[in-house]
Each structure stands twice: as structure tokens, then as C-alpha cells.
Amino acid sequence: MWKTMANTKDAALEIHSDLVMKGELSMVKDVILTGKFEGQLTTDGCLTVSPGGVAVGTIEAGALVLQPGNLVEARVKIAPPKPRSAPGKTLRSEKPESKAPVSGAKWPSLRKLKEFALGR
């Protein structure tokens, strides 16, 4: 069961105790784990492993809170989120090729847009 906390600007993803997830999870917001996660978990926010929570694999988070009663068997990296470009800035310090009007402007590739959206 997935649950997001409603009516909050910075909602968190909560993985409940009756849920077992395997694979990759990449989030920008906080994650609260009371269930079981196996794989690679990445979040720019805070990962909280609550009582009963189990994390096995690799964790990369902006912050980590381990509450008593959990199990964590993981390679852990705690690092602040990667800086994101401000609106109106070019991707990866690229300079626009021309000052052409929008109708003739060159758009970034889909790959570059995806990397930008993921903060890489």
C-alpha cells in the first residue's frame, strides 16, 4: 500500500508494514519505511526507517533517521541533494546557439530533459 500525506506542500511517501518492495526507488521527497524494501533506494529528502522497517541493499539519501526496532543491511551514502538549475537557466551550462525567436529556437534533446528532471 502506498500512502502520501495529503495537504502538505512537501508530502512524504510512506511504505507501510504490509508492503514488500523490490527493485529501484528514486524520490525527491521524504520516504518513511515501516515495510520492507530490497534494492536501491535513492531520495533527495530524508529516509526514516521506523520500527519494523527493513532496508536491504543500497541507500542514498539527503538525511537518514533510524528509529529503534528496524533492520538495515545496506551500503549507505548520505549526501545533500544535487543542485538543480533555476528556471530559465540553460542545462549543463550550455550556451544558447542563437538568439532566434521561439519558433526557430533549438530545443534540448529528450535525454537532456530527462537528466535535468532527475537532477543529474
Largest sheet: 7 strands, mixed
Radius of gyration: 18 Å
Number-wise, the strands total 7
Percent helix range = under 10%
Assembly state (oligomeric): single chain
Mean pLDDT: 77
Q: What is the end-to-end distance?
A: 29 Å
- Class by helix and strand content? mainly beta
Topology pattern, helix = H, strand = E: EEEEEEEH
Shape: elongated
How many structural domains?
A: 2
Strand content: 35-45%
Poorly predicted residue ranges: 1-8
> What is the number of helices?
1
Write the layout of secondary structure elements.
Layout: E1 2-4, E2 13-15, E3 20-27, E4 31-33, E5 36-49, E6 54-66, E7 71-78, H1 110-118
Parallel strand pairs: 2-4, 3-5, 4-5, 5-6, 6-7
Antiparallel strand pairs: 1-2
Walkthrough of the structure:
The chain has 120 residues and is mostly beta strands. It folds into 2 domains: 77 residues, no CATH class; 37 residues, no CATH class. The protein contains 1 helix and 7 strands, in the order βββββββα. The longest helix is centred in the last third of the chain and has 9 residues. The radius of gyration is 18 Å and the shape is elongated. The two termini are 29 Å apart.
